[in-house]
Write a structure and sequence with these properties.
By secondary structure, the chain is an all-alpha fold. The chain is built from nine helices and no strands.
Amino acid sequence: MDLKKGKMTAWQQWLERPDKSRVRNVFFQVHFWMGAAAGAYILLMSVSGSVIVYRNELSGNSFVEWVVRLHENLLMGMTGRFVNGIGAVCLTLLCLTGAVIWWPGTKHWRRSLTVDWSAHFARINWDLHSALGFWCFIFVMVWGISGIYFAFPQAFNTLLLLDPADRFTDQGLFWLSQLHFGRFGWFVEAIWMVLGLVPGLLAFTGVFICCRRVIYKKPSNPRSS
C-alpha cells in the first residue's frame, strides 16, 4: 500500500482487487467480444472434433468422413482451412486473455476452481466457465496452437531460426499434431473425445455470460450482483 497516497500499487490492486485494474479490463473486453463473435464457430469445432476422434477406426463411414471435412475445412476447401486458421488464432487468444482475467483476487481464487451446484443457474454457468477454463487450459491451448499449425504450417518454419539444425522442430510439430487428435491409444482417445467438448461448453457458457451482460444489463459475474 502506498502510505503517502493511501492507494494500492498496480501490483497490489492486481493481486487483491483485479476487477478494478484497467489492464485487466482491456483483456476482459478483448476476451468478451472475441468470445461472443467466435462462440458458434468454437462450438461447431468442439462437437465435430469429438465426433472424429475415432476417425481411423470408423474410416469408410460416410457421416464420419463428412464431419471430418467439416472439421478440417468447413466444407469449403482452402477457404475453409483459412477460416479455421483464423478461428484457431481466436481460440488461442481467448485462452491467453482468459488466463489473465481468470484471477479473482487473493481472497477468492479457491472458489474459482470449483462449481457451486446448489447455486442459481447464472452462478453455476459462471463457475463452470471459470473452473473449466482453469483446469482445461492446457488442452484448449494445445488445440488452438495446433489448429493454427494445420491452417498455416509455413508460419511455423520460423521456428527453424531457433533450431537451424532441425533437431527439435520437426519432432515437436509431429507431437503437436498427435496431441491435437489424442492419437495415443483407445484410452487417451476416449479422454480426448470427452475433453473435446470443453471448448464447446466454454463457448456456450461464455455466450450466456455475454447475453446476461449485453441484453439483460446484468454483471458478467453474478457474484458481484
